[in-house]
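Hi there, hope your week has been kind to you so far. Please have a think about how the structure follows from the sequence. I've dropped the whole record in just underneath, so have a look:

_____
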Amino acid sequence: MSVLSYPFDNAYILQKKKSIKRELLTKSSFVDKKVAILSGSTIGEIKNILELFLLDYDIKPEFLVGGYNRYFEELMFDDGTLSSFAPDYIYIHTTFKNIENLPNPDDTPEEVKLKLDKEFAKYKAVCEKALSYGSIVIVNNFEYPFYRVYGSKDAVVPQGAVNFTTRLNLMIADYVDTKANLYLNDINYLSSLVGIDNWFNLENYYLYKYAVSVNHIPDLCFGIAKIIKSTLGKNKKSIVLDLDNTLWKGVIGDDGVEGIKIGIEEPAGYSFWEFQSYLKKMSKLGIMLNVCSKNEEKIAKQGFTDRKESALAVDDFICFKANWEPKSVNIANIAKEINIGEDSFVFIDDNPAEREIVRQSLPAVTVPEVTCPEDYIKSIDRAGYFEITAFTKDDAKRNEMYKQNAARAAQENSFADYTDYLLSLDMSSDIGPFNTAHSERITQLINKTNQFNFTTRRYTRAEIDEIISDTDNYISVHANLVDKFGDNGITTCLIASVEGTNANIDLWVMSCRVFKRHLEYAVFDELVKECISKGVKTITAKWIGTAKNVIIKDFYETIGFECTLDTESEKSYIFNIPDNYEKKNKVIKMNRI
């Protein structure tokens, strides 16, 4: 495991940051991003440590670091430095020390309210200005003060700084929830984890104006990096779980179904029940749960069917592998069955030997060091594998979608002819240009799709909104796919820039769960239709190779493109639109929206 994986050693990271950076830079593939850090306090070490965590996520940052306590001026009165840098991300590092309108004991409640509104108005103005640069913006809320004039009553009376900070944080949370491309780094929670006295070190502040203790800068930077990697689609997608002594106490094959411990009535089983409850909540966010256990399947399933205290049910799992095959083999098979990369998995097993075998056999799989069951939740939760920066209706339905895919695969095996199989699915699709109602889902799909992704370009929500409004220079297409098993949601989108009589495909992505069901043909048909309406005669495209998109390397040739450049890492294409273009999709009923 990386020295930057949770739980990490803060002191070691601070001491060895140069050697850690050198090691990280030996990796072969990075996503380049520009990051501006603006602050109300000293931030030099924050930049250094944030760089390490981003490199660990295969993100190579170029930084613009603002001046000391100049965040307001640099945003609101840019001299051209920030705009010319054109940051992909702006991180605004403010803390309790930057609250200017704190109440006094002799203020009336009405005066406190005016101060609160004034403080929030400044915060909002800064956020709005930062968003105007077309960047993804990350802001802090505020930690609690390191002293309380009123004691515990500080949380109650309007004049208390704790009460004021709580109300301000709630206003900030409500505001952030309404804004695309604005994300909250919750330092109020982070400071509570380590304690206010540890988070805010007076000596560090008086001497160096560090408003976060130097010792806890890695915790701060880890939080920021998790948000950035999530916006780039680098989250994990699935948890693979052992059973015995992982989801319940005991060995079901030896102890019997009544002998295992699970449930709130049994002290030995309470922590396992709480872990299962946590996993149940994760599944409702679209995190896929799978079982990989050395067990007899029938007996293993009884741990859920015959023990009503279990928070999880068999139906909560996409794949249930309970057999005597090596766990590395089962995990590899799960990846193939649900068609996601092995690097999308987090494997949880109480047995250190099993963990090490999986690490050695499947290095792409993340295998955290879990110890006692009381720490299982923390091991997953604090590591940020599944950091949520966007949540759509399609996310909520993801588990059901993958179960439907399993039913489709079973039906496919009963057909000798693939076209007959596709027709049997009774597929339909709503297709049309991008729209604001679906821009969040479109942005999310673009930034997390890696296999059917020809150029791996990433777009912000603001950029998608610009494309929606610029119909003269862009053709955009998005589509869902529905069949007799269910609705897969919006699963594909395409962006083509128009210049004269040529349209260039800047981006084309599609969820792997619908690939080869001819939705790709339907999208191309729609693109050609739009090109003809605009007088476009040719379509150009590229495939830029990555470790994950080799599967589509030759796709353009299969739909009639001529290859004009062919190297190991890049291919270029052109398609001359014929006078009588014949639609390629023959199996999906299309509804234009």
Q: What stands out?
A: The first helix runs from residue 10 to 15.
